[in-house]
């Protein structure tokens, strides 16, 4: 049996909303979309779980927030590397100038 092409997300949402509104049954929707009732049930479950998470406000960081966190991590690493490099330069200068830690 040949598998029908995957339905776009917008079509799945339309089907799930129709079922939730009582406009059609799962069996009707499955028949019309040429998919199994189990597939329709999965779409409905995922839709409801995602909606629940959205209403609970427990979504993860947004794209911009992730981008800024990545930038902060990069800058923190660069700052650490610069601090190490500065220490090396200072020690090198102390050695060349003959300065000791006690003569500061």
Characterization of this structure:
GO terms for molecular function: sequence-specific DNA binding. This is Putative transposase. It comes from Kitasatospora setae (strain ATCC 33774 / DSM 43861 / JCM 3304 / KCC A-0304 / NBRC 14216 / KM-6054). Pfam families: HTH_28. Residues 11-60 form the Insertion element IS150 protein InsJ-like helix-turn-helix domain. The protein is 72% helix and 0% strand. The chain is rod-shaped, with a radius of gyration of 30 Å. It folds into two domains: 9-56; 63-103. It is an all-alpha fold. The protein contains four helices and no strands. The model has no long low-confidence stretch (mean pLDDT 86). α1 crosses α3 (37-56) and α2 (26-33) crosses α3 (37-56).
> What is the helical fraction, as a range of percent?
over 70%
Shape: rod-shaped
Residue ranges: pLDDT <50 for 5 or more in a row?
Answer: none
Intertermini distance: 85 Å
**Largest sheet composition:** none
Summing up helix and strand content along with how strands pair, one would put the structural category as: mainly alpha
How many H/I helices? 4
**Beta-strand segment tally:** 0
Beta-strand proportion: under 5%
Question: How many domains in all?
Answer: 2
Mean pLDDT score: 86
What's the Cα radius of gyration? 30 Å
SSE series: HHHH
GO molecular function, one term: sequence-specific DNA binding
Protein name: Putative transposase
Domain Insertion element IS150 protein InsJ-like helix-turn-helix: 11-60
Pfam family, one: HTH_28
């Amino acid at each position: 049996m040949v598998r029908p092409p995957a339905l776009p997300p917008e079509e799945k949402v339309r089907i799930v909303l129709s079922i939730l509104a009582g406009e059609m049954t799962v069996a009707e929707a499955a028949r019309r979309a040429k998919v199994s009732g189990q597939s329709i049930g999965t779409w409905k479950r995922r839709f409801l779980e995602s909606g629940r998470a959205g209403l609970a406000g427990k979504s993860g960081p947004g794209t911009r927030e992730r981008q800024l966190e990545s930038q902060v991590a990069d800058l923190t690493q660069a700052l650490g590397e610069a601090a190490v490099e500065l220490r090396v330069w200072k020690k090198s200068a102390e050695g060349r100038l003959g300065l000791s830690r006690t003569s500061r």
